[in-house]
């Protein structure tokens, strides 16, 4: 990579006291095929950052075009060091790229911003200054507080999706996100000392959410900003990114065993749909209802297995072959059915329970056993 070292740092006479004693800042920019935006971005960062705020820019690039070369060339005209980390095997998408940048950063403060100029570089010094002044560990640039707006979020559809996702996310993490009006923002400043890189498991676009939930900065503050139009090129977000976001939410929300068990139960409940559909189809085709029920049950098991693999335990598939996991999962699911009847008999005969409460207790017992078994025998924590 190319880098140039600034020949003069920290001359307060150049920029009068607009920022009280700033620390140094590393600006992390994830890029995916943004060659047409690089020059303008670096030019505006150069204009925005005063000489007394020591600054470096780290691009984390997953491009398939010539973006890294464009960055290296543009870097030669910059008064601060510019680094390109190109990833040959991109993991975690946008969020994974940002975490690489966080690890490579050397300054006290890290500002994360997009490479397409939807995030105004002029705000960088203010984000850092606000953090220094307030003592906060995280400063979020928000579209949803007084003075901010989402002008660059084109179309009613995208606005509605963004609002719905923000609402859902804030309801899932009421405590962690209590001081954050815009947890979906991709523009923020964070103290390097707050970042706990080893516990992060980024997946896709919402890296701020990941940091707020897993690194848990003690104090958070916000600065309003106007989300601009893209300077050049197109958004890299796809429908697949939406599904990734849901997986990310489930992963973040199921850090505790109780939360995992609840999601396990919810997924199990959805298994009734394929189960009943299968039963309907098989009996309609003339099959006796007993074998039909047994076969249809396997359909529900397969459905649950897919959801559990891809939503709940995606990080914990371990070294076993997928067919080994399917086998164990199916065994547990069917053992659950076989175990239920003797359990009910036990509760009724030995403990004198009524049939209804015995059935309810047996359902809960086999459910908990099945969850514990699934964690212990298939997806080790
Ligand atoms: N390295 C890397 N790898 N960079 C990526 C990847 C990736 O897989 N995907 C996207 N980027 C880069 C883009 O090149 C751009 O610099 C930045 O991440 C944002 O990508 P966009 O595709 O422009 O995102 P957006 O405008 O749709 O979404 C932005 O605004 C949202 C709020 O509406 C992002 O900041 C989101 O995080 C934010 O929620
Ligand atoms: Mn963008």
Automatic annotation (TrEMBL):
Residue stretches making up the GtrA/DPMS transmembrane domain: 264-377
SUPFAM superfamilies: Nucleotide-diphospho-sugar transferases
Species for this entry: Streptomyces siamensis
Keywords on record: Glycosyltransferase, Membrane, Transferase, Transmembrane, Transmembrane helix
Region described as Disordered: 1-17
Localization annotation: Membrane
Its membrane topology: Multi-pass membrane protein
Entry protein name: Glycosyltransferase family 2 protein
Residue span, Glycosyltransferase 2-like domain: 26-195
Family stated for the protein in its record: Belongs to the glycosyltransferase 2 family.
Transmembrane segments: 262-282, 288-308, 329-348, 360-380
Listed CDD domains: DPM1_like (cd06442)
């Amino acid at each position: 990579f190319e880098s140039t070292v600034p020949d003069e740092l920290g001359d307060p006479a150049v920029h009068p006291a607009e920022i009280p004693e700033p620390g140094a800042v590393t600006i992390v920019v994830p890029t995916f095929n943004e060659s047409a935006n690089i020059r303008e971005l670096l030019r505006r960062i150069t204009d925005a950052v005063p000489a007394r705020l020591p600054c470096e820019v780290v691009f984390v690039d997953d491009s398939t075009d010539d973006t890294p070369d464009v960055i290296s060339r543009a870097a030669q005209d910059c008064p601060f060091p510019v680094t390109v980390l190109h990833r040959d095997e991109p993991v975690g998408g946008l969020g994974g790229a940002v975490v690489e940048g966080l690890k490579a950063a050397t300054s006290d403060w890290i500002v994360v911003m997009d490479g397409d100029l939807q995030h105004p570089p002029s705000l960088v010094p203010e984000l850092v200054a606000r953090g220094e002044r307030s003592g906060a560990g995280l400063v979020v640039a928000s579209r949803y507080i007084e003075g901010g707006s989402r002008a660059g979020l084109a179309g009613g559809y995208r606005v509605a999706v963004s609002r719905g996702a923000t609402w859902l996310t804030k309801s899932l993490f009421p405590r962690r996100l209590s001081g954050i009006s815009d947890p979906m923002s991709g523009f923020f400043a964070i103290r390097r000392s707050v970042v706990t890189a080893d516990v992060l498991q980024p997946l896709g676009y919402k890296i701020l959410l990941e940091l707020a939930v897993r690194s848990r900065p003690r104090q958070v503050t916000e600065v309003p900003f106007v989300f601009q139009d893209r300077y050049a090129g197109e958004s890299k977000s796809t429908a697949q990114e939406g599904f990734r976001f849901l997986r990310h939410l489930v992963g973040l929300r199921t850090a505790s065993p109780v939360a995992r068990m609840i999601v396990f139960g919810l997924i199990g409940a959805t298994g009734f749909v394929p189960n009943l559909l299968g039963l309907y189809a098989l009996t309609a085709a003339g099959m006796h209802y007993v074998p039909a029920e047994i076969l249809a049950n396997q359909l529900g098991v397969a459905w649950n297995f897919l959801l559990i693999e891809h939503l709940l335990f995606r990080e914990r598939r371990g070294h076993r072959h997928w067919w080994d996991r399917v086998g164990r999962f199916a065994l547990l699911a069917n053992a659950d059915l076989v175990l239920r009847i003797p359990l009910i008999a036990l509760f009724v005969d030995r403990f004198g329970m009524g049939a209804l409460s015995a059935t309810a207790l047996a359902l809960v017992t086999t459910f908990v056993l099945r969850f514990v078994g699934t964690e212990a025998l298939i997806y080790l924590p």
